[in-house]
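Hi R.,

As promised on Friday, here is the backbone we talked about, encoded as structure tokens. Could you run it through your design pipeline when you get a chance and send me back a sequence?
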């Protein structure tokens, strides 16, 4: 039998992979996409962004009926949680999204190669015992959860954020390990469902790697206002219990009760495939400005890829970056020769609040804060130039900050602090 060949084989069907595959097909190339899951969409659609947002929405509805409606004079008796139905709805939301990707594959004639992909020779990819040829290979393998040293995850009593999305029972007390966005979002959903929640962060404060102290303080206040206990500057000594977790011992000697422990300390780029293929690794799969790896016939996009930036190599963990980089790679495979210029944006839904982020705060040396109803914004400057904005429940600040950053315009820090109306900054 003749070997099947394609112009492009994309390995991974998350936002970076399926967008690159579809865009390349729309540009006239013959495309196959390798995915070992039973459904397309990768981590984001199957066990990440989409299911977590679905559960957050359901938990908000539960909290509203149980508590918030009383403020409006609406009394509801006998409110109870049907976790099985909530999980079923989450599954329906996920199915609608992954089915949508499958439809777009059919519409654009992208071939789905089901199984684990492996680069076995230049221009050759093996999937489920069959070898396929391609002029271009794109690696879009995304990222994976970072394990907590010394803790064995069983996805039953000690779970990752993925296992936390599949609970079939409501525990009495939850301990969340990790004060980044993954841990904070998990804590918000659990608290909305009525659980007692303690979040533990070993670093001096939550969001220490990604946000200014001013943003962390807004998020800390939000969680504490909703009843989440936050413990900072203290690590995990061990998780206790024989058949199941029953507590968490901290390095300062305290013991926290726990029926369930979620480990959400972060994610790391999935580079095993690239390493096996002998590609250069540097904070992910190292690419040039076009998205090409150390092998000129292999490209990379999304969470797994790092690319040149003014201050060194940069790797972004966001759906927006995965999509934008995937589209750039698809065009560059056809000779567009256009360096990828990221336009970073990110969001996090916690309780009834939305944190929106534009730009990158790397190397900031000054922040300006502006209050807003139930939130506010933090504006980051480096050398007097606006580089990023965090906006909590302040969509206007986010949109204006994003437009200024993308246009390369920078108001003076004093102007941001003193402006009676942010729109004036656009003048």
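Update: got your reply. Pasting your designed sequence below so it's all in one thread:
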């Amino acid at each position: 039998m003749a070997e099947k060949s394609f112009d492009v084989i994309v390995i991974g069907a998350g936002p970076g992979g399926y967008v690159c595959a579809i865009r390349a097909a729309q540009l006239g190339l013959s495309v196959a996409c390798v995915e070992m899951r039973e459904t397309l969409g990768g981590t984001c659609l199957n066990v990440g962004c989409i299911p977590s947002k679905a559960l957050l929405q359901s938990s908000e509805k539960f909290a509203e009926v149980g508590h918030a409606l009383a403020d409006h004079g609406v009394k509801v008796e006998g409110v109870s949680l049907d976790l099985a139905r909530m999980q079923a709805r989450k599954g329906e939301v996920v199915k609608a999204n992954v089915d949508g990707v499958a439809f777009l594959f059919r519409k654009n004639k992208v071939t789905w190669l089901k199984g684990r992909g492996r680069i076995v020779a230049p221009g050759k990819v093996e999937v489920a015992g069959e070898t396929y040829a391609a002029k271009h290979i794109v690696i879009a393998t995304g990222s994976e959860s970072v394990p907590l040293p010394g803790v064995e995850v069983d996805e039953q009593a000690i779970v990752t954020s993925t296992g936390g999305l599949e609970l079939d029972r409501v525990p009495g007390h939850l301990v969340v390990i990790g004060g980044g966005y993954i841990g904070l979002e998990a804590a918000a959903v659990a608290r909305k469902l009525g659980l007692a929640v303690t979040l533990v962060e070993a670093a001096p404060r939550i969001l220490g790697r990604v946000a200014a102290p001013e943003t962390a303080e807004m998020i800390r206040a939000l969680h504490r206002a909703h009843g989440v206990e936050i413990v900072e500057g203290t690590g995990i000594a061990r998780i206790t219990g024989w058949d199941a977790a029953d507590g968490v011992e901290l390095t300062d000697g305290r013991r926290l009760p726990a029926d369930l422990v979620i480990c959400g300390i972060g994610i790391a780029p999935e580079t095993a495939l690239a390493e096996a293929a002998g590609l250069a690794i540097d904070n992910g799969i190292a690419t040039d400005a076009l998205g090409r790896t150390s092998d000129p016939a292999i490209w990379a996009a999304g969470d797994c890829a790092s690319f040149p930036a003014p201050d060194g190599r940069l790797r972004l963990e966001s759906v927006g970056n995965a999509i934008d980089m995937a589209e750039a790679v698809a065009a560059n495979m056809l000779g567009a020769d256009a360096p990828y210029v990221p336009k970073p944006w990110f969001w996090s839904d916690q309780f009834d609040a939305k944190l929106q982020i534009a730009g990158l705060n790397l190397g900031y040396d000054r922040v300006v804060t502006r209050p807003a109803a139930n939130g506010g914004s933090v504006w980051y400057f480096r050398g007097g130039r606006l580089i990023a904005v965090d906006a909590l429940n302040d969509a206007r600040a986010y949109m204006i900050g994003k437009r200024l950053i993308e246009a390369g315009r920078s108001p003076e820090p004093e102007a941001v602090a003193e402006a009676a109306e942010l729109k004036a900054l656009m003048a």
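One thing I noticed while checking it: The chain has a mean pLDDT of 94.

Thanks again,
M.
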